[in-house]
Amino acid sequence: MLARRIIPCLDVKDGRTVKGINFEGLSDVGDPVELGARYAAEGADELVYLDISASRDGRSTFTRLVSRVADRINIPFTVGGGISSVDDAAALLDAGADKVTINSAAVRNPSLISEIASRYGSQFVVVAIDARLCDDGEIHVTTHGGSRMTERLLFPWALEAQERGAGEILFTSMDHDGTRGGYPCGLYSRLASTLSIPVIASGGAGSPADIAEVLTDGGADAALAASIFHYGEISIRDLKEYLKQRNIPVRL
Length: 252
Fold this sequence. Notes:
By secondary structure, the protein is α/β, with parallel strands linked by helices. It has helices at residues 32-42, 56-72, 86-94, 104-108, 111-120, 154-164, 185-194, 208-216, 227-230, 236-245, and strands at 5-13, 16-21, 24-30, 47-51, 77-80, 99-102, 125-133, 139-143, 148-153, 168-173, 199-202, 222-225. The longest helix is centred in the first third of the chain and has 17 residues, at 56-72. The protein is globular, with a radius of gyration of 17 Å. It starts with a strand and ends in a 7-residue tail after the last helix.
């Protein structure tokens, strides 16, 4: 079995790491380069940086930040947030990012997945999917941070993203995100068995046991988390020791 990955996620606004609920009530939790370097030293396998700045100035600040991260950090890192064209992706990959993640823009223009994959390779493209259970009993894909419902359904969309060239799927269940009550492991298990590319679990982690469960019963290849690391609830090193004790393969 391949080693399971632990991936801290850092939301970045105007060059600083922030944390809030639904991008509101944001508080500053530190310099993203220093924080990323600390997580790398603690044993993180990868990092994800998401730009939540709305302004063009914020975008240019983020691109400069990516260059600083690339100079300082020696583990792979993915960047995303507002990428809507091949040129957007190119600017960040050329600045030193290892992968880009696309979400709303991919739903709006699915060919963007294949365009980036054709130019850089599937291993550079992570498609993020935010979805929730709706009144019709189906799990619908949402966009714009979960605020807009679409007609697309989780499993067909994930399969289409894979066929178009996505190298990984980052799935967040909007029904569980922020609840800290654990992941919907049944959904992750079904998704992992449907796809042949890695699945990253995001949203719902409240404890090391939740992460262990999604990496085993849920079949996820990686777990992404933010608050439990930012606020020092558990270190990545201690989390990996916990997982190792439960016979989950991790890189120590």
